[in-house]
């Protein structure tokens, strides 16, 4: 049995979303309101927090991959510098 949401004022069954700026609120919100009489049935955030989190997750994942690549490159360069320093010491030991 499927339930149908009904407006408590007019028994309407269709709803729409309307952007609102409520006094005292620091952020915009959306009213979910009855399409027939405009009675509010709910409020939701203007910004889709779930979508923002997904976008941030993507950015963090990319940053993490870029950072890992940079660390691998730095590690290889340090190994190369270490090897050259060791070669220089070994050459200096052999030369009188
Ligand atoms: Zn209504």
Provide a descriptive summary of the structure in words.
This protein is an alpha+beta fold. It has 2 domains: 47 residues, N-terminal domain of TfIIb; 49 residues. The chain is built from 1 helix and 3 strands. A 3-stranded antiparallel beta sheet has the order 1-2-3, with no helix packed on it. The chain is rod-shaped, with a radius of gyration of 31 Å. The model has no long low-confidence stretch (mean pLDDT 93). Bound molecules: zinc ion (ZN). The site of zinc ion has 8 residues, from loops.
Short description:
The protein is an alpha+beta fold. Helix content is 48%, strand content 19%.
Layout of strands and helices, then pairs:
Layout: E1 15-20, E2 29-34, E3 40-45, H1 49-94
What are the defining features of this structure?
single chain, 96 residues, alpha+beta, N-terminal domain of TfIIb, three-stranded antiparallel β-sheet, 1 helix, 19% strand, binds zinc ion
Which ions, cofactors or small ligands are bound in this entry? zinc ion
The termini sit apart by 96 Å
Number of domains as seen in the coordinates:
2
Please give the share of residues in helix.
40-55%
Give the percentage of residues in beta strands. Answer: 15-25%
Helix segment count?
1
- Number of DSSP E strands: 3
Major sheet size, sense and barrel closure: 3 strands, antiparallel
Q: What integer value in Å does the Rg equal?
A: 31 Å
The residue ranges in which pLDDT falls below 50 over 5 or more consecutive positions are: none
Order of helices and strands: EEEH
Q: Class by helix and strand content? A: alpha+beta
Round the mean pLDDT to the nearest integer and report it. Answer: 93
Shape: rod-shaped
Oligomer: single chain
């Amino acid at each position: 049995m499927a339930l149908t949401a009904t407006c408590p004022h007019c028994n309407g069954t269709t709803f729409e979303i309307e952007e609102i700026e409520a006094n005292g609120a620091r952020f915009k919100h959306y009213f979910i309101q009855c399409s027939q009489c405009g009675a509010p049935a709910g409020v939701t955030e203007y910004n889709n927090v779930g979508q923002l989190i997904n976008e941030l997750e993507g950015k963090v994942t990319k940053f993490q991959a870029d950072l890992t690549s940079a660390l691998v490159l730095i590690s290889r360069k340090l190994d190369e510098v270490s090897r050259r320093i060791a070669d220089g010491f070994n050459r200096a030991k052999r030369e009188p």
